[in-house]
User: Fold this.
Amino acid sequence: MGALNQTMRLHVIFPGVESTVTASPARCPYRGCQGKQFRFRQTVLKPLRDMVFDQVRAARYQCLTCHRTFRVYPIGVRRAHVSQRVEGLASILYLSGLSSREVSLVLEQVGVHLARSWVCDTGRAVQRNLRVKRQKVFEGLEMSANGPEAMRVKYHGAWARLQVTLNPPKELVLTVDVTSERDMQSLRQWLEPLARAVQANLLVGDANR
Ligand SMILES: [Zn+2]
Assistant:
């Protein structure tokens, strides 16, 4: 059974992204308005940085109580020009110690091109919200010519496989391989609050999942 060297995998599963709005608004977003009835005005194309969609369709509604208009975004999209899962992935890697350059490189591997300054700003915003300090949990990144499924990060002094995969139909998963129960526990402890902050789920699996 070789329990000593058994590879375990920690998966961070990010929330999905939809390309269209699937639910109508429940209440008016403006402060002080209790409006619950709306008129659909138009569909608005929104450019997006994401590994699947380069644009999504937002919907513009008018509140029948206060007559102001507002936009409703698809699941996984907000006013920002970057999808929530890209933000989540970038924040987790940045707060775990990778440099903004390294985070940009990982994102590039999955087809998302974002400036280093954006990585810093986004990571710092999550850091402020969470009141968590950025830590050198990962002490370096090694890229591979074989794509996003064969990168490595230095973790507790050893190189661990790091993968970013897009599972069908469109689930984004960050996976770190660890080889001891102790490493798994500490990595899990570190990632749990970060994952919660970006609405991602942690899943511990064996080498097959
Ligand atoms: Zn209103």
